[in-house]
Amino acid sequence: MKTATTAPLRRAPTPWLFIVPALLYMLLFFGYPLVRNVVMSFQDYTFSTYFTGEAPFNGLENWRAVFADDLFGASLWHTLVFTLGSLAGQFGIGMALAVFFSRRFPLSGIMRSLLLLPWLIPMVVAGTVWRRVLDQETGVLNESLQALHLTSSAVPWLSSPDHALLSVVLVNIWIGIPFNMVILYGGLQEIPAELREAAVLDGAGPLRGFFSVTLPMLRPVVTVVLVLGFMSTVKILDLILALTNGGPAHSTETLGTLTYQLSFLQLDFGQGAVVGNVLIVISMVFAVIYLRANRGGVAR
Predict the structure, then answer these.
(1) Which of 98, 119, 125, 273 could link 184 by a cystine bridge, Cβ 3.0 to 4.6 Å?
(2) Is the dihedral of CA 135, 136, 137, 143 positive or negative?
(3) What are the ABC transmembrane type-1 domain coordinates in residue numbering (predicted)?
(4) Do residues 185 and 108 touch, judged by C-beta distance below 8 A?
(5) CB–CB of 222/209 below 8 Å?
(6) Which pLDDT value is given to residue 227?
(7) Mean pLDDT of the chain
(8) Could you write out the three-class secondary structure of 173-237?
(9) What is the DSSP track for 95-159?
(10) Rounded CA gap, 268 and 279, in Å?
(11) Neighbours of 57 (CB within 10 A)
């Protein structure tokens, strides 16, 4: 009797031995930086702070300065356009390629492997290469377009405020397509062939079968792809710095590049922390929307 009651008590702490290291890791590498960033946004934290150790509390001064700057509003809009445009292009083309490669044909495996290359190249390297490709004077893209008589003059892809943001979005789409294709392709392989055959027997064409059978079955995979894509896209910094450095005329300035400009170029870490907190809030709002939508899907 005594042994039966004490054994569960001895085993009870065992799960915590596995949970505590993860909790400590989260608190140390996520919790502390988050709290420190929030505190910094209410301080006059500059480069001299590292020598004097003084960062006086200045209330909402950093927040007022950031929100009053027209560049913050423009950066917020550019972030929205860049993120949504990239997600739409990456997901749309990735889905089309996944459906295309789900039908076996000779050399399909080799072609899928080659399409993974943009995803494997470091972001800075990809940005540097594309900057040369899109160069107005010597870029291979303009030379090809003019040789094919598709344009009469060189297009200022990265040097014009009217084209720069679109060019950056297109490059990011090119980089993100392989990730979307691979994940969606894996999801398509898990859909039972019997469901598609049943849809065909019921008279559903390819388009109707895709939207009525394939896409609903892919919902969990699509959710994961969009969430991971959003989290990685909304904070992109290195690609934009390599392509345009936020220019020309701040036309490609996003919240990520604005944080970099304020913190590491202007050395105003307090205002940089404010923009960083805005990015965190945006990510949290998106995460809450995702969790509620996913919970509703499970409930149904």
Answers:
(1) 98
(2) positive
(3) 76-290
(4) no
(5) no
(6) 87
(7) 87
(8) HHHHHHHHHHHHHHHHHCCCHHHHHHHHHCCCCHHHHHHHHHHHHCHHHHHHHHHHHHHHHCCCC
(9) HHHHHHHTS--TTHHHHHHHHTHHHHS-HHHHHHHHHHHT-TTT-HHHHHHHHTTS-SS---TTT
(10) 17
(11) 9
Residue identified by tokens 């913190």 is 263
Q: What is the pTM of this model?
A: 0.86
Exposed, middle or buried, 288 (CB in 10 Å: 0-12/13-18/19+)? exposed
How far is it, in rounded angstroms, from Cα 100 to Cα 110?
14
Min mean pLDDT across 15-19, 95-99, 153-157 is at 15-19
Helices (H) and strands (E) in the chain, counts: 18, 0
Residues in the chain: 300
- CATH for 71-299, options being 1.10.3720.10, 3.40.50.1980, 3.10.129.10, 3.50.50.60: 1.10.3720.10
For residue 71, is pLDDT > 90? yes
Q: What angle do CA 181, 176, 253 make, to 5 degrees?
A: 160
Give the pLDDT confidence of 211-266 residue by residue, as tens digits.
Answer: 888 888 888 888 889 888 998 899 899 999 999 999 899 999 999 999 999 999 99
How many whole angstroms separate alpha carbon 172 and alpha carbon 195?
35
**φ, ψ for residue 235, nearest 5 deg:** -110, 15
Distance separating alpha carbons of residues 255 and 278, to the nearest angstrom = 8
Q: Which of 293, 49, 252 is nearest to 170 (CA)?
A: 252
Cβ contacts of residue 209 below 8 Å, gap of 6+?
A: 196, 199, 200
**CA atoms lying within 13 Å on the CB side of residue 234:** 22
The three-point CA angle 30-39-289 to 5° equals: 55
